[in-house]
Amino acid sequence: MEPKIIDIKEEPTDVEALLVLLGEHQQIILKAGDNWVARIESLSQGGQKRVPGLHAGTYKISDDFDAELSDAFWLGDA
Description:
Distance between the termini: 52 Å
Order of helices and strands: EHEEH
Structural class: alpha+beta
Largest sheet: 3 strands, mixed
Strand content: 15-25%
Helix content: 10-25%
Low-confidence stretches: none
Shape: elongated
Number of strands: 3
Strand order of the largest sheet: 1-2-3
């Protein structure tokens, strides 16, 4: 489904009206003249479900990840 594009300079609208439009479209794009301002997407439509452990083993966290950083680091001498 194509996103609904609304120019807020030509067609000012309130939040409730945007939510009604969001029910009809999966995405609303707001622009002010030639400038894109915001994109509003529905959370209940589409999307992918999260899968726990999907990327298990693809990254490694260092053993000293939560160790205190030295003063030299904060002073830019590190």
